[in-house]
Structure formats: structure tokens, C-alpha cells
Amino acid sequence: MSEFVEQCRQEWKRLGVPDPLAEEMAADLASDLSDAEAEGISAEEFLGSSASDPRSFAASWAAERGIIPEAPSRDDARRRPLALMTFTALAATALIVAALLLLTGEPKVTLTATRTPHLVTPPAGSIPPGPQTRIVLHPVPPVNAAAPIEWMLLFLAIAALGFAAWLWTRSSHSQPPIAPA
Amino acid sequence: MRCMARESRRSQLLRGVLDLCLLAVMDDGPAYGYEMTKRLRDRGLAIVGEGSIYPLLGRLERDGLVESYRAASDGGPPRKYYRPSDAGRLALALGVSEWRAAREGIDAVLGPVKVVEVAS
User: What's the whole-model pTM score?
Assistant: First the structure.
């Protein structure tokens, strides 16, 4: 029985329950379990299904007392994957669109870095004119695609999908324990 | 299997009124956790399998339906005693009315049903 109380105490510590409150709850629980034992009542009989899961029991008790944030509601838990699914779907759509444009269509617009000669004659004594880099938008033939929009879209979509995958992994690892009623 | 289903229904029914039962036994006089389960058991209500009363007591306290204080128990360590607050007594009265109304309606439907014992 003391092991059950000890596990509860550890869980409260992990959850950030203030020490005086955790001590108070542990002392009450230990006294009650001791009374029950003295009357021949097992922890299972006294605590019901909670006896086999001290962590959930401790978390549930602390949450119901309002001394730790409550586990997210089922509605919140349902809404979060929905937003994540929407984000993943958008990223996947962007990836497919970019891939289709690259495979089937010709890039219509591209961003290219071109070097153009300086057309203005600088005043005497200044730095001699040299080629400058300008970003210009103009149609290009399919073979000359230095940085086409389609490629940028593809890279962005891949990055977004990678981010979505990371979020899914994180989401599946951080599922809170279901607290008993 | 049938026994488990019966247990589950009992759990669900009890879960809906366990807060009222706790308020009712506290209304008889301040009690600490284990004392409440004893009072419930003495009245024929064993709460085995229904989950612990502690989270429920925590919720009642947070909602202002019970008040608590620490006092020495009979020969034992100081215990946390609970008693219904004024809001708790009101909630108990309203809850009991709701329970009785629900019970009457359900009895009217289920009462005439002849129960046949089936060997499990």
C-alpha cells in the first residue's frame, strides 16, 4: 500500500503539484488505506480500478482539485488532429500540384538571377561600374529554369510535409493518460 | 460477459449519482475519505470498481459544494474532514429531486417488465 502512495507522490511531483498539497494528499491517502487494511479491505476494494494505476489516479485527483491544469478535453483533442490533418492535406496538395507542373507543364514564370551591365556612367573618381545583380521576371524556355516557381513550390511543400510529419510524431507521443472518472 | 455488462451499467448509473451520495453521507456529519466509503457500504452501496472517491471529492471542493477542515481523528492522525457547504446542500436537494423524477419515469417503463432469470 505504501508503494501505491509513493507512486502517487512521485506523480504529483512530476506534475508540479506544490509539495505541501502533495504531502497532505499523500498523508490522507496513506491514513485511509491503512484504515481500510485494518478492517480487512484491500486497496482494490477501496480504490476500485484506480488501485492498478497510481499515476492516472494521482493525476485525476490533482486535476479535479484544480491544482494542475486539467487534461485537454476530448473536444480539444479532436480539434487538434483536424487542424493537423488540414495542414497535411494542403501540403500534400501543394506537392502534387508542383510535381504535376514540373512533369507535364512548362514553367511559365521563373525567377532568375541575371547579370546586366550598368547603363549609367558614374561620375569621375567613383567606383568603376561593374555588373550588378538584378532579379527580373520573364518567360524562359523550359530548359533554362534556374529557380522556377514550380521548384520553389515543390521544396516548400516537402518542407511543410516534413513539418507535418514531425507534428504527427509529437502529437502521438504526447497523448495524455485518460483519467478515470 | 453478461456479468461484465451488468457491472458496466451499474458503474454508469452510480457514476451519475455518486456525487449526490457523497453529499448525502456528509450531510449526516462531517467525514473523511475512508469514513465516507464506510457510510456508503453500511447503507449497502459498495463502490468497488466505480473509481475512487478522491477525484470526486476534489471536484466537489473545487466547485465550492463542500468545505474541508483538518481535525484529529479518533486516536489517529489528523484527517481532512468534509461537509457540504450551503451550495452543496442546495445541489443535493436539487439532485435528489432530479433522481426521484428520473427513477419514477424509469420505474414506470421498466416496472411492468417480468424479469426472467437466465442461467449464465
Answer: 0.61
